[in-house]
Each structure stands twice: as structure tokens, then as C-alpha cells.
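Weekly puzzle thread! Below is a chain. First person to post its structure in C-alpha cell form gets bragging rights.
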Amino acid sequence: MQPNDCFIMISRWMLVVVCFAIAGCDSADTKKHRFLLKGNAELADRHEDAAIRYFNEALKIDSCFADAHNNLGTLYFRQKDYGQAIQYYSQAIGCDPGFVPAYFNRANTFYELKDGKSALADIENVLRSKPDTVPGIFLKGLIYTQLKQFSEAETAFRKILAIDSANTEAITNLGTVLYYKGDYRAARGVLSKAVSHKANEADALNTLSQVALAENDFAAALSLVDKAIALNGTNAFYKNNKGYILLRMNSPDKALPYIDESIVLDPYNSYAYRNKGLYYLQRNDAVNAIKMLTRAVELDTYTEQVHFYLMEAYVLDKNMEQSCAELQIAKAHDEPATTLVIPNCRP
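Winning reply:
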């Protein structure tokens, strides 16, 4: 089974910022490390302009100072300027091809950019040096999940639990992967364990709501997502999921406020736009349905069932040529419900 909605709030491992303790001498090496430490302190205090200045002072002393390049990459990552972050991490690696923190950080950035293949190559580099490092294995599991290679993701999360059986993030993500694989019974068992851990209780309840939804138990799905929202009322994914459950219950007017709130909280979640498109479909508003579904495709063309819903919207709009084109894309993406045959569409 493919992901039904972008609903998981995955706890992420922090990026690696490199720092040093230095002695009281005044060599060039000591000076560049002193600037590095000052930059780290400013970065920790979120004084980013000052941090950039200190890191660049270090680079004036040594233009191939991998640690400074790495930490500048982390600064830009925090600003969500992923292109700049990639450049600095790549410069760090170019200066020191064995610099493991930069590989980890670049993998994390490629993951954010949804470039799973590049992310996987970098995290494999990390794990060759440190095969049992939990943050590396965890990120590998996330990358495999993003690539929809769910068996490999399951293996990664189970490996973490073999190292640390109480790792609640790994438990929650294992349950989510089992849900993606369609093993609802196993997912429910794992996620029920995660609910007992307060730190991950809301995520586990939210994912359990999707398990119930997949089994068409709408009452249970709604109850579970409401419990997740009660624990974290500002989570965009939870709000969007409640909207989707209400759409599945044919209650579009009740669904819309949750979907809109989700978009305000996170304007880059393609599933929220897909769900708003589905709302307009239920209202027979082809123009706005096409607008919302197209936005979802712009954000992520692999959003579940988005091309199938676009096909339906174009049928409603009487644009059969475009409807046929969306049907072909939906089939290529193995979207559910694509056995539908539209007259005059080429097979």
C-alpha cells in the first residue's frame, strides 16, 4: 500500500555542528578555531549574521577549513535555504573527503529536497565509517520511506530497536512503515506500544487513525485523530488528516475548516491541497478543484491519487483530452482506482 496522506511528523536527528576546545596560543590554526567557536556561539543564540561573519573570518585564514564550511551549511539549512546548504556541505567534503559530519548533513538536506537517491548515497558513506550510529540508521530509514522502499525502511528501524528497544521514534516510524505496507494488524500492535510513550503519543495516535481509516472504521479514525489534536493542536498534518477523514465521511463542510487551517500552518503540504481539491470535487466545482489539485502536483507529483482526482475534475469540466492525460499519469504512478475506463481515451 502507498501512503494515503502526508501525516507523519517524524522526529529528526539534529544536524552536526563541529566545535573544538582550543588552547591559549595564537597560531593561524588556533585563530581559525577561535572564529569557529565564536560562530557556533552566535549560531546557538540565533544571531545568524554574526555567525556568518565569524565563519567567514575562519575561511579567510583557511579557505579549505571543512568545519567552517560545514557549519555555514547548517546555518543555511536552518534558514531552509537548502541549495546554499548543499553547496557548503559539498565544499566541506571537497576539502576533506573523509569528513563524516558533512556527509550526514548533506544527506539530511537531500532528504528535505526529496532527492532520495543522493541522500541514500551520502548516508551510506556515513554508515561505512560508523555502521552502528543510530542517527545514521534512522535517517536511512526515513530516506527509504521517502523512496517508498518500505521493506528496507522496516529493516532500518528494526535495526535501531535491536540496539535500543526503547527508542520511541523508531517504534513510531516502524509502525508507520508497517501501515504503508498494508500490514494493519502489525502496525496497530507497534503503534499501540508507541502510544504509551508520551513523547510520541500524538504521532502514534495520528497514524493509528489512518490505520482505522484504511479499514473504513471512520468513527475510530475520527476519535483517534481528535486525541492527537488534543495533544498537539497546531500540527498541520493532524488537522489535514481530520479534514480528509471528514471528506471520506461525506461531510465536506465540516472538513474544509481543518484543511484550510492545515494550509495556513504548512503551506507546502501537497496533501492539504489535494484534499481541498477533493472538497471542491464533492461540491462539483471543477474550476477550483483543478486549481487545488494542480497546486498539489506542483508540490509533489507523487501525492497519492492526485492525478486520479485531477482526471475526475477534468471529466467534470468536460475536458476529456486532459482527463485522458491524467488517467495515463495515474496509471503510471500505480494510483488506486485507475481501472476506470474513460470512453475515447487511448489505452
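Puzzle host: Confirmed. Bonus trivia for everyone else. Residues 1-14 have pLDDT under 50 and may be disordered.
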